[in-house]
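Try this one yourself first.
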């Protein structure tokens, strides 16, 4: 059984402070002297407040340096509109959110370059996956994930951070090309907001009906979360295909790093929507704590179980009508990790 380490959010005494757990977790990471370590995290969309807090990330950086490693903080550009579509906008947003050279004491590098095109291609299960170049070239990968709800994956954790987060724009497009939405005209009030916020300019109005140009559509999901009347939705088949592609992309990253990867999940500020949203919503349950493991599937399964236990129901399915267990099952089948785990409290 895979070991998953757990620090409860309960902090009755000074010795229980959450940031102190980071150093204990990082003792389990097999980082060697002079290894270049990519610290992968989502630094938050402009206006989002649920992302992993900078104090925890700084503790990870300090722990890596203590081991003799050479860390850099990293993420990749996005497909949707917002303030993270290119490296300039992202670095400015990251700085506003508390991530910069001064606060982190290490460089911040957008792994897929200025416009999201810096990549390396590897083949997994017959598919060519475009990996962000700076992540591909690192010696070791530390994945920090804010565990929360997600409109396409049910929940977002370590698997999604590996799969979507470590890919260039082309890698993201490959995963999202199966999530091109359908439109329910019975709910539509023809406000035309979707025609303005679609980053691919794929949505248009024709003869009093909303249409989607699927040749232009990137499947990015912006319309799914931004339509106030919930007119856009995914078919059951597209959801299954998306989870399968998430698993394949996650497998690609694991093929690169093998045993040289470590995961930390933050079960705090658990919002219904992901950190890509400036309107991610207020936390839907109390903070649970922080988990760490060398296995992406095990840590996500443990995180999912703890959330369901705390909520006494599947709050992610209730919110999005998407079964998050799909990504766990697909990832296990592909050998990304194991769902059998032993929770070890620290």
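Now uncover the answer:
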């Amino acid at each position: 059984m895979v070991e998953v380490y757990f620090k409860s959010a309960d902090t009755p005494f000074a010795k229980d402070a959450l940031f102190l757990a980071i150093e204990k977790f990082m003792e389990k990471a097999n980082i060697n002297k002079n290894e270049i370590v990519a610290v992968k995290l989502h630094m938050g969309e402009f206006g989002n407040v649920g992302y992993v807090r900078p104090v925890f990330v700084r503790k990870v950086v300090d722990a890596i340096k203590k081991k003799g490693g050479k860390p850099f903080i990293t993420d990749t550009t996005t497909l949707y509109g917002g303030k993270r579509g290119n490296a300039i906008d992202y670095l400015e947003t990251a700085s506003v959110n508390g991530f910069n050279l001064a606060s982190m004491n290490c460089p911040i590098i957008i792994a897929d370059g200025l416009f999201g095109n810096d990549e390396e291609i590897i083949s997994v299960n017959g598919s060519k996956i475009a990996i962000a170049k700076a992540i591909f070239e690192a010696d070791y990968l530390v994945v920090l994930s804010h565990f929360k709800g997600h409109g396409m994956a049910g929940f977002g954790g370590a698997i999604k951070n590996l799969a979507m987060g470590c890919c260039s724009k082309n890698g993201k497009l490959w995963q999202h090309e199966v999530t091109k939405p359908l439109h329910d005209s019975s709910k539509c009030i023809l406000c035309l907001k979707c025609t303005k916020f679609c980053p691919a300019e794929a949505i248009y109005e024709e003869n009093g009906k909303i249409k989607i140009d699927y040749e232009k559509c990137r499947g990015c999901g912006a319309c799914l979360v931004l339509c106030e009347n919930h007119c856009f939705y995914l078919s059951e088949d597209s959801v299954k295909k998306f989870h399968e592609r998430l698993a394949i992309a996650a497998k690609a990253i694991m093929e690169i790093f093998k045993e040289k990867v470590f995961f930390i999940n933050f079960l705090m500020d658990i919002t219904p929507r992901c950190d890509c949203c400036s309107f991610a919503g207020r936390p839907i349950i109390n903070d649970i704590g922080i988990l760490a493991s060398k296995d992406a599937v095990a840590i996500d399964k443990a995180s999912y179980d703890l959330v369901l236990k705390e909520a006494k129901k599947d709050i992610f399915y209730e919110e999005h009508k998407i079964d998050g267990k799909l990504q766990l099952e697909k990832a296990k089948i592909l050998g990304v990790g194991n769902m059998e785990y032993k929770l070890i409290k620290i």
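Discussion: The chain has a mean pLDDT of 97. Residues 236-257 form the longest helix (22 residues).
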